[in-house]
Specification:
Elements lengths: L3 E7 L7 E6 L7 E10 L2 H8 L2 H6 L4 E2 L3 E9 L11 E4 L2 E2 L5 H4 L10 E2 L11 E5 L3 E3 L6 H19 L6 E5 L3 H12 L4 E6 L2 H9 L4 E4 L5 H8 L5 E6 L4 H10 E9 L11 H6 L4 E4 L7 H11 L9 E6 L3 H10 L4 E5 L1
Length: about 350
């Protein structure tokens, strides 16, 4: 095997990324080496590309980016026993310690010592990546590599939608980026009465309709609070699934929540947000959940059930594909909002 590879790297503390020749990663006793077949861009990667305050505070450079990928196992460590060379895998991006209080009480997704692929250690926008065997999710042989790569991000949608009880409820999804539209599909699949979606991009609102939204609202064109109250007979919604991180979306979403409603928040504002806790949260008796990553491995099994039962079809979410070397063009498209999921092909 060759000794070097091409990878997308955050090398400098400034906006943008670089495409560099780097060493193919070595593997330890419990690791596997994966030849990447497909990798998809996440909103977190966009935060890193833009070098916003969250990224500046979080990353230690240089680091290879990308945490959603699938590929073929080409080498295994001496103590690897469950994964074989030649198998195709996707990966849980959160590398957890297994011994802290969170891990030992079944809440590994909240591990105090988490190291995230593409943030704390080199990621999957590369020809090869090394990951612990424990982070590998073996895929069916007939699953397309692009769909397999989406499973990690799809897990965010599944975790968010399953956090609140959406059954027979009116649900509002704020933010129709790729994970937002996948969340719409999950909410419908698990029994939501109606799903309403908001965004500023007409393209993404159209994609939301394809993924099952009952109605969409462009916040640049309508007063969202008035419009959704009108279609809900003045009641508002039972559940808020906030995917955008936009301060206005947070305000509108909580304004539309019924007293006693539930909110699951996945979007990252990237900066402190002023919020009226008295009127929008406490006096309404709202229950709020912060969603991070996926429950390991509960969410992965839920996602597998939704995909293999075909109640959720992820194919419409993938709208664009680029060779890895055109990563910059792919990121600019993501930033424009004129796309769904963008896949990089090494």
């Amino acid at each position: 095997m060759k000794k070097t590879m091409r990878a997308v790297v955050k090398a400098k503390p400034q906006p943008g990324l670089e495409f560099l020749d780097v060493q193919i990663p070595k593997i330890g006793r419990h690791d596997i080496l994966v030849k990447v077949k497909a990798a998809s861009i996440c909103g977190t990667d966009v935060h890193i590309y833009r070098w916003d305050p969250w990224a500046r505070d979080r990353l230690h450079l240089p680091v290879g980016v990308g945490h959603e990928f699938s590929g073929e196992v080409v080498e295994i460590g001496t103590d690897v026993s469950l994964v074989e060379v030649g198998e195709t895998i996707s990966a849980e991006s959160h590398v957890i310690c297994g011994y802290c209080d969170m891990c030992r009480t079944g809440r590994g997704h909240l591990c105090r010592n988490t190291k995230i692929l593409g943030i704390d250690r080199d990621g999957g926008f590369a020809e090869y990546i090394s990951i612990p065997e424990a982070n590998a999710w073996i895929d069916p042989e007939d699953m397309p590599s692009e769909i397999a790569a989406l499973q990690e991000n799809f897990g965010n949608a599944v975790h968010t939608a399953f956090t609140a009880d959406v059954r027979s409820k009116r649900v509002l999804v704020t933010g129709c980026g790729p994970v937002g539209v996948m969340t719409i599909a999950v909410a419908k699949a698990i029994g939501a009465r109606a799903v309403y979606a908001t965004d500023i991009s007409p393209y993404r609102l159209q994609l939301a309709m394809k993924m099952g939204a009952d109605a969409t609202f462009n916040v640049k064109e309508v007063n969202v609070v008035e419009a959704i109250r009108a279609v809900t007979e003045g009641e508002g919604v039972d559940v808020l699934l906030e995917m955008s991180g936009a301060p206005t979306a947070l305000h509108d979403g909580f304004a539309l929540l019924k007293p006693g409603g539930e909110a699951a928040l996945l979007g990252l504002p990237g900066r402190p947000v002023e919020f009226n806790f008295d009127d929008l949260l406490i006096f309404k008796g709202i229950r709020v959940y912060g969603v991070i990553g996926r429950k390991i491995w509960e969410t992965w099994f839920q996602a597998r059930g939704l995909i293999r039962s075909k109640v959720v079809d992820l194919k419409p979410v993938i709208t664009h594909r680029f060779p890895l070397e055109l990563y910059d063009k792919a990121f600019q498209l993501m930033i424009s909002g004129e796309c769904g999921k963008v896949v990089l092909l090494p």
